[in-house]
Amino acid sequence: MILQKYENVKMKELSLKVADYNIHLKSCDMFFLKTEEAYQFFLNEDKQQGNDLHVNIHHGLPVLPPGSKKVFSSGNHDLIEMQFDHNWYARLRWDILGYDNKLFVRKFSEEDEESIDKILELDFRSSEWDIYFNEKLNSNTGDIELDPLAYPLGPLLIYYLVTLKGGIMLHSSGISYSDRGFVFTGFSGRGKSTMARLWKEAGAKVINDDRLILKHKDGKVYMYNSPMYYPDKPVGSIVHDIFAIHHAKINTIKPYDYINGMAKIMAFSIQHNYSDLLINKFIDNVTGIAGAVSVNELGFLPDKKVIELLKGKYGEVS
Q: What's the rounded Cα separation, in Å, for the pair 96 and 103?
């Protein structure tokens, strides 16, 4: 399903805006481009804005440089939710190879696990990246549409752009309430979605309940959502406080010092940093974020009393 505005529209170029980063994708061959519904909420029609990244889409796979080394593998399968149906799963295999200042993400065919059907080439010295398809193109079948952002290419493309441009991707939920932004971070089961639900019931705007982009800019920290496996419109907010959360018998807030706050942000960040350049960028980004906001430990009971505690701490008791 796609947004009615773009239904039946054939496009050879797409522009996305994610976390205020502008991404331009262009087909260099005869096929047209399409996206899943979740990405279509992030389509950007403002052609006057400068692009942070250009992505060229090609037919045919490249020959990788000799000496490219595998730095990550999803294993035989990667179990993910697809098509926005929580009861339908696709098993995908992909890996990442590194060479010099480049990474190559290889997506393997679902029919033949030894056959590569897509490659994303990222050159960290350039603002132009490339995606290659190994699709059989038959002009007799009519117009051909290919999805350059299908998992895992889209999420990884956004991840690396965010990292290089000064941001991080954090396992977290985020809310905006009365002009104050809170981020709740932790591993699965710690209560990120619960906190988002409780705040939504209290009238807050939920940025996302599972994953956020955070970036440090001009002395402030901002949070944004990004395309997920379900439709979600772009939204963002300033961040004032980050809470590393866990379930507890009583509601408690304890501030971290700078070093421990930075360590908590690192621990809950998404990381695919397979070069010294990426590692150093990630550390710099976390350092900037941890120095610009308050980072706290929050133990909580899953009811509205924790909302009252946080409102009270910041003078927002209703």
A: 7
> Are 318 and 305 spatial neighbours (Cβ–Cβ below 8 Å)?
no
Return the closest-CA partner of residue 172 out of 228, 240, 244.
Answer: 244
Is the CATH number 3.90.228.20 carried by domain 168-313? yes
pTM of the model: 0.90
Contact 266, 244 (CB under 8 A): no
Average pLDDT over residues 62-66: 96
What residue ranges of the chain are covered by domains with CATH 3.90.228.20?
A: 168-313
- Residue-wise DSSP of 181-250: EEEEE-STTSSHHHHHHHHHHTTPEEEESSEEEEEEETTEEEEE----SS-----EEEE-EEEEEEE-SS
Mean pLDDT over 6-10 rounds to 55
DSSP count for the chain of H helices, then E strands: 6, 21
128, β-bridge pairs: 54
